[in-house]
Amino acid sequence: MSHDFATPEPNLAPGSAHHGFVVESTEPLSEVSGCAYVMRHTATGARLMWLACADDNKAFAIAFKTPPANDTGVFHILEHSVLCGSDRFPVKEPFVHLLKSSMQTFLNALTFSDKTMYPVASTNDRDLENLMDVYLDAVLHPAIYHRPRIFEQEGWHYELGEAKGAGEGGKDAAEAPLTYNGVVYNEMKGAFSNPEELLLNGIARSLFPNTPYGWVSGGDPDHIPELTYEEFLDTHARHYQLKNSYTTLYGNLDIEEKLAFLDERFLGAAQRGAGEPNALPLHEPISPELLQVPMATTPDNACVAVAYVFATASERERVLAADVLVDALVGSNEAPLKRMVLESGLGRDVTGFLYDGLLQPMLVFELKGAKPGVAKDFRDLVEATCSSLVTEGLGQDNLEASLAQAEFNLREGDWGYPDGVGLAIQAMSGWLYDDGAATSYLRYEDAMAHMRAGLADGYFERLLDSAVCRNAYACCVEVVPTEEGAGTGAEVARLAKVRAGMDEARLAEVAAEAEALHEEQVAPDSPEALATLPRLSLSDIGEGPDEPATARVEAPVPCFHHEIDTRHIDYAYFYFDLGHVSYEDLPYASLLASLLGKLDTSERSAYELDTLSESKLGNLSFFTEVYSDDEDALSVRPKLVVGASALSENVGWLATLPQEIWSKTLFTDKKRIRDILEQRRISLEMSFVDSGHAAALSRVGSYFLASSEASEQLGGVDFYRFLRGALDTFDERADELCERLATLARTIFAKGACEVSLTGPAADVSTFWQAAGDLSLGNADANVGDPTLGPCKQLALCVPAPSVRHEAFVVPSNVCYVGEGMAGLPRGVRMSGAWRVAAQALSFDYLWNEVRVLGGAYGCGFRCTADSQLQFYSYRDPAVDPTVRRFEGAAAWLTAWQPTTQELEGFVVASVAGMDAPVKPRALGRRLDATRLSGRDATWRGRIRRQMLDVTLDELHALATPLENLPEDRGVCVFGGREQIEGSSLELATTELFEAGQ
After folding, report:
1. How confident is the model at residue 620 (pLDDT cuts 50, 70, 90)?
2. Could you count the other beta carbons within 10 Å of the beta carbon of residue 913?
3. Tell me: the pLDDT tens digits for 852-892?
4. What are the residues facing 159 on neighbouring strands?
């Protein structure tokens, strides 16, 4: 019999005591189909909430209120450091051991502006308790008090670089330059390469000067080296106290068992006799002058923001309504405020967002690609437009659409990670500031109903008037690009000054301490220390989840239905084959995907289309992707994909609205087209700076695979160059471009080129097809190849043969991202369960220690892709060459690797758990589609899983053989700052990526 979590448990009534906890409140929570029980630990004052529901993907989180008092990033460094060993688990990296060996579905730690959270999730109850045990010991009894080099490793320390002329690896203290290193230091150097990060920091500094929100919680690289070890320890002692903590439990739990467990751990918490935590006061309203933030970056990265402190965290409905309001104002190119800004020509794009999870939430409007000196004009335009909208109205259809979109998103509940983690984070938006508000940010149904009732009565206009038009608590911040390299030069000068003040004895101390840190980092954990870690065995792994069946549906085009419990939401994906367009047309197909849904059709204006889409659909997107056969490097099947979702009652719109767009879009509004292409350019440039590792791996794949070469034309560096060229010549070629796009649309959206995937209730399938008809598909001739093209004559798409390259792309960044890979197929590699286990070991053992701990990169990893590419990457890395050397040492490490039986089982457990982890219905449907479109049989996941469970150490050792060829077979791609790339001795074809004409 299933448990009724929606009815409060009588034995958990308010006032009842359970293992040292007293229940303070009990309330049904329909938003999670369960109940919330809020408790207090009598002995320590620790707060606790159990979100009781039927979800077997159970979660735990402990959070501490951590408002900063300076820019040193102490709480960010603590977040990293407490996970580097503890009293009961005295290994160097218990966090990594859990990644290696647990069945976790989420394992991380998160630093926010005013809190630090440690959430975990697992579908295995024993595993969840193991994760809780290690995390609680980490935060309450960390090794930082007796291992000071943890602070040096995760925070910062001095090193002496190579002296000029010192020879290979040599150092001469008299000549060697002084440098900083540290994981958080390097991470934040990467973060500070993003102009939006500096913009947000500037907003906080303007609106909350010299108070917690005015400081950079993550750490400013200029100030991180000011943090001392003593301040680091004192900050932990004052803030990581249970009376300053908030614990959330989630899911189908034995609550008495978990409370007994927590009671024992809480009673054993260290009493350090420290002072009180930092205060988090309300800030009085202020109206600061324009703040200009200089940044060494390209002129295109200029940006401006206006921000308004409009509420306190206690005003839950007002905060939720502001999120709806932002969508109504700037949620699409047709939203009224965004349209006005785009037409003004002040910049290339404008966005808006709710900055909540704060004591005093903010509304922020950002102008991207801002022209010089427009900050005041932008603010004036925002406020004048908002004033007009207050007077004239936001438009009921516009507001209804934004409200419907918000309701859909809340109902779908797709956080991007387990629900228990998302809800724990969400709860802190109220609970952190008010012990009586533990559930206020988990509720939304009554607030949404009240907003809907107020649509015709000026509810949102009044909100806009008070939040923006009549709100003096606001600021304007501008990021002003300066000469590139200026930031790096300042750091070099600062370090040179510090070094000049060091005598030979001090320099020798720096060198000795760096060497001592290195020795501690490379020293293995003792067998006794490793034995303290809780472990699962293969016997703890249950049967894997069954893949849902896919049924072929009788329909005008091939249609596949996945019957999955979607809570009455339908997901539709239309896959249009691009195999009958030319290679030269691939980037145009990507442009087409960017434009669809954002232009007028012959039946509706872009505004009407956008409003209807938000009202009737959960989402509507157009994008491209590429499939291929796993064992054929020249196989390539590019698709233009139309994805949409809707509530069951709107399934008819799911069938008809997308086809109106693909069959009736008008490519005549050149101004709108240019705006959209500029927005795509900005988005790509930000991705190259923030996620350069993903771009590097995609580029490396194109050196070996036709499918990845096609992907480059659709969305990588090659597409970016094409897009820059299209924008540079837009005025001269606009008519030609519009005509080509219209012709291409007729070619792509044709009969014989489409198949449909539906995920959701079976009863909705027939309703969908009744509305869909023939999908309004044309009759374009698929055999458009030129007979003179030989093998390509029956297929228009002929992708050039891949060629191996070694490239570097200079982007405005203070760090680099290194990708290196080789083709596995020619070396006999086939993706298998053994490769999945090897990837787990290489990523979380060898590379973690070498690239992250020793090299100072923020992230790193290895993967064997489904098409047998062997790929390594680093993320926010201080240097290129040491990382490449370490990548190429992987084969020797794997050959010599001698894990214990328990260690090997741990890697297998973690690998299998990664495959078995629950996914949301949308993602599950897409996974089933990928299996079909890649030509894999339905049993392939089960086969890989079985191979993981059966893997032997000999099998894993044998995988080192193809990796030995990495130096010979490799392709290398680096994205990063000029200093990092020019500091490499590799022969890299280097390109200034953001320069015109590149």
Report:
1. very high
2. 21
3. 999 999 999 999 999 999 999 999 999 999 999 999 999 99
4. 179
Q: Looking at per-residue confidence, does 794 or 62 come out higher?
A: 62
Q: How far apart are CA 245 and CA 117, in angstroms?
A: 10
Instruction: Give CA–CA dist 89/93, Å, rounded.
Output: 9
Q: How far is residue 377's CA from residue 344's CA, in Å, rounded to a whole number?
A: 10
Angle formed by the axes of helices 586-595 and 730-748, to 10°? Answer: 90
In the chain, what percentage of residues exceed pLDDT 90?
Answer: 92
Q: Is 85 helix (H, G, I), strand (E, B) or coil?
A: coil
- Give the CA distances from residue 296 to residues 479, 485, 487, 490, 529, in Å, rounded to whole numbers and listed in that order: 10, 6, 6, 11, 46
What are the φ and ψ backbone dihedral angles of 262, each rounded to 5 degrees?
Answer: -65, -40
pLDDT classification of 796: cutoffs 50, 70, 90: confident
Which conformational region is residue 828 in: left (phi greater than 0), alpha (psi within -120 to 50 degrees), or beta?
A: left
Structure tokens at 700: 């490396």
What's the pLDDT band for 161 if we cut at 50, 70, 90? confident
Helices (H), 535-669: 586-595, 606-616, 651-664
Q: What whole-number distance in Å separates Cα of residue 321 and Cα of residue 899?
A: 54
The answer to whether the beta carbons of residues 648 and 570 sit under 8 Å apart is yes
pLDDT band at 661 (very low <50, low <70, confident <90, very high): very high
Determine the 3-state secondary structure of 759 from DSSP: strand
For 814-848, how does the pLDDT look when each residue is reduced to its tens digit (9 = 90+)? 999 999 999 999 999 999 999 999 999 999 999 99
How is residue 918 written in tokens?
Answer: 């629950």
Query: Which DSSP string corresponds to 669-722?
Result: -HHHHHHHHHHHHHHHHHHHHH-HHHHHHHHHHHTT-HHHHHHHHHHSHHHHHH
68 vs 57: CA distance, rounded Å = 33
The pLDDT of 660-689, averaged and rounded, is 97
**Average pLDDT across the chain, whole number:** 94
* DSSP class of 8: P
Nearest one of 58, 61, 40 to 116, comparing CA atoms: 61
Query: What gap in Å lies between CA 723 and CA 719, rounded to an integer?
Result: 6
In this model, does residue 345 exceed pLDDT 90? yes
Give the per-residue pLDDT at 996: 56
Residue 697 has pLDDT above 50, yes or no: yes
Would you tell me how many other CB atoms lie within 10 Å of the CB of residue 413? 13
Task: Give the separation between CA 92 and CA 90, rounded to whole angstroms.
Answer: 7
User: Structure tokens of 154?
Assistant: 């995760």
Strands (E), 172-258: 178-181, 245-250
pLDDT, tens digit (0-9, with 9 covering 90-100), for 743-780 = 999 999 998 999 999 999 999 999 999 999 999 998 75
Cα dist from 876 to 76, 226, 269, 518, whole Å: 16, 22, 35, 20
* Distant-in-sequence, close-in-space partners of 394: CB < 8 Å, separation ≥ 6: 328, 329, 336, 460, 461, 464
Long-range contacts of 391-400 (CB under 8 A, 24+ apart): 393/458, 393/461, 394/328, 394/329, 394/336, 394/460, 394/461, 394/464, 395/336, 396/455, 396/456, 397/611, 397/615, 398/328, 398/335, 398/336, 398/611, 399/324, 399/328, 399/455, 399/460, 400/455, 400/615
Token pair recorded at residue 589 = 């197909």
pLDDT tens-digit map of 171-206: 455 678 999 999 999 999 999 999 999 999 999 999
What's phi and psi for 92, nearest 5 deg?
Answer: -70, -30
Distance (Å, rounded) from C-alpha 269 to C-alpha 271?
6
How far is residue 644's CA from residue 109's CA, in Å, rounded to a whole number? 33
Q: Which residue has the tokens 């390469």?
A: 193
Q: What angle do CA 484, 488, 493 make, to 5 degrees?
A: 130
DSSP class of 311: -
Helices marked H in 163-215 — which ranges? 183-191, 195-207
817 DSSP β-pair partners: 975
